Amino acid sequence: VALAGVAAAFAVLAAAAAQNPSANQITFSEHVAPIVFTRCATCHRPGQVAPFSLLTYEDARRHGTTIAEVTESHFMPPWKPDGGDIEFQGDRRLTQPQIETIQRWVAGGMPEGDRGRLPRAPSFDAGWPLGEPDLVLSMPEPFVVPADGPDIYRNFVLPTKLSRDTWVKAVDFRPSAGGVVHHAAFLLDSTGEARQKDKADPLPGYGGVMGGGLTNGPASPAELVARARGVAQTSPAQAAGRAGGGGAIGGWAPGGGPKTLPDDLAYFVPAGADVVLSVHFHPTGKAEREASKIALYFARRPPTKPFLIVTLPPYSGAFKGINIPPGATQYTVTDSFVLPADARAFAVSGHAHYLGKELTLTATVPGHATMTLFSISDWDINWQGTYFFKDYVSLPAGTRLDATIRYDNSAANVRNPFNPPQRVTFGEQSTNEMGMLVLLIVAGQPGGAPTLRTALEQHLQDAVRASPMMGGRGRGPG
Ligand code: HEC
Q1: Which of the residue ranges 9-13, 45-49, 132-136, 328-332 would you say has the lowest mean pLDDT?
Q2: Distance (Å, rounded) from C-alpha 321 to C-alpha 468?
Q3: How far is the CA of 54 from the centre of ligand 1 (A)?
Q4: CA distance 136 to 76
């Protein structure tokens, strides 16, 4: 009966369309605006990262042909993860019918249609979407991004002045100037190291990707290697201070809203810590003065469980001896980790610089087919983000996580910063390389977290011991 009803409804529609050709016509007001307003305008509006606005019929018509091209090719909206086995929150990809609607609109001459049918243009409230923050941190002084030139990686020290240890539930971010901030990471530093780096640099902040080589804890990779060689002792607890990236409260990329951790999970921000705002600026053709703000929302009480950060390989690959010959297209770094206890994963991200090409994280549950947790087959340093799974992904004890990062150091890699290609080794400059996949997990059973944490500490120790930095005893990547 229901099906017959649907068929009848279609028949009526088809008859109406036959009588009135315009009913068949794809118009901006009726069909395209609802797509553009909800899926494009978050970035395509004044003051945002996209190069033009998409808020009116005129805007859309002027760029219509390109819009049809870039939506069909999936270049827009930007969304890097391949469609894998797991669904993500906030998936920006258009559906096939939406893509076809745009194609038909452009092929049909881009009619405006009945303005009476235009949905209301989206409004972007000037307030914080999550309400009044508990703490707003601002860059102490604006940083001038020139009109053009290379991308700039810069770190700004924002003292929290928190008098007590604090749990942070959600973080939001707001750039001040027209679209120069391409992405930002929020790191923590309680050692004063970032302040020193800032002081040593005459301009606001200091240079470098992701904290600019901030050791951010008890030991740098070189120190850990020295300790493992027996020059000094490292305790697992010390190592763990670094192992999990142990000092970050998320990040931001254009079009991204505030990020709230699931359940009662929260980030730990020690009293007196500095937030190090690590920004990738992309000049826009117009000089800008950028003074971003970070909004923090506190948890009312400490979380009932911790979350753990699985970083494969540890330290962004610092111990892997990354050393990529010019021309290499198949240079690969891999790392694996077996979960010793049940876990549930809730978010994933990856990191590499310009030569990174393909990043993949899979999970193999014993006795089951391997599932892809995350895969980017055309990595772009400009579109880094943390992707939250729609639901927790259950990873029972014994699950093996496999991370693979493939680099392309040939001239065919359009993002290769060197022409002709040069040998590239590990380092924090954007023209050096790094590589890792990061999975955020909670223990699947009460009391499971210490087991998982100990195994992660051991994994770091093993990575240090196996490193080519240990004097050639370890094997470098192939
Ligand atoms: C998350 C932010 C974001 C969203 C959402 C987004 N765009 Fe874009 N768009 C950009 C940025 C940034 C650029 C500039 C890209 C570049 O230069 O690499 C761009 C560029 C474009 C271009 C110019 C491409 C070219 O090659 O000249 C078109 C057309 C476009 N976007 C259309 C769309 C449409 C249509 C949608 C929605 C269906 C959309 N975009 C959604 C950020 C976004």
Answers
A1: 9-13
A2: 6
A3: 10
A4: 32
Residues with CB under 6 A from ligand 1: 39-40, 42-44, 49-51, 63, 66-67, 70-71, 76-78, 92, 94, 254-255
Mean pLDDT of the chain: 87
What confidence category does residue 216 fall into, taking pLDDT thresholds of 50, 70 and 90? low
Compute the distance between CA of residue 391 and CA of residue 394 in angstroms, rounded to an integer.
9
**Structure confidence at residue 478 (pLDDT):** 40
- Rg (C-alpha) for the chain, rounded Å, is 24
241 — phi, psi (to 5°)? -55, -30
What is the residue with the minimal CA distance to atom 29 of ligand 1? 67
Going from the Cα of 78 to the center of ligand 1, the distance in angstroms, rounded, reads 7
- Residue 240, C-beta contacts closer than 8 angstroms, at least 6 positions apart: 246, 453, 456, 457, 460
* Contact (CB, 8 A) for 372 and 362: yes
What does the pLDDT look like over 264-300, one tens digit per residue?
999 999 999 999 999 989 888 889 999 999 999 999 9
How much is the average pLDDT of 95-105?
A: 97
Farthest-apart Cα atoms in the chain, separation: 87
Q: What does the alpha-carbon distance between residue 58 and residue 48 come to, in Å, rounded to a whole number? A: 19
Query: Which of these, 383, 375, 372, 435, lies nearest to 408 by C-alpha position?
Result: 435
Which of 145 and 14 is assigned the larger pLDDT? 145
**Distance (Å, whole) CA 352 – CA 74:** 22
Q: Residue-wise over 438-465: b if at least 16 C-beta within 10 A, else e? A: bbbbbbbeeebbebbbebbbebbbebbe
Nearest CA to ligand 1 atom 25: 66
Residues 6+ apart with CB under 8 A from 222: 469
> Which is higher by pLDDT, 208 or 360?
360
Mean of pLDDT values over 449-473? 86
311-336 pLDDT, tens digit each: 999 988 989 999 999 999 999 999 99
Terminal Cα-to-Cα distance of the chain (whole angstroms): 62
* ω into 313 cis (within 30 of 0): yes
Give the HSE-up count for residue 275: Cα atoms under 13 Å, Cβ half-sphere.
Answer: 30
The residue nearest atom 3 of ligand 1, judged by CA position, is: 43
